[in-house]
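Give me the fold.
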Amino acid sequence: MARPARNKAERITAGVMIFSATCQACHQADGKGIPSAFPPLLASDYLNADPKRAVTAITKGLSGKITVNGKDYDGVMPQQNLSDEQVANVVTYVLNNFGNKGGEFTPAQVATLRK
């Protein structure tokens, strides 16, 4: 296993690889998602309003109707089998890309939200 990220920049760099391997198939490389199927991460009002939602969706899964950027989605995102470090890295990457407003999560914060 790679050494843990020591700062936000390292977390973002590590997050790119996790996003490509785990998230990109549904949310697409450009973060636009797939209309009527998978919500966008691109300038996501849903995530920017409460970034903890990203952590919870990854660690616990998400089902039921949500509204993202004015469009409704009613699908299922299964819980992902990622470590707290991996979740922190990928969420930090998403928050700092795709036109989102930035931010950072640490593995300790993810562990707290996972409980």
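Helices lie at 8-27, 45-49, 52-60, 84-95, 107-114.
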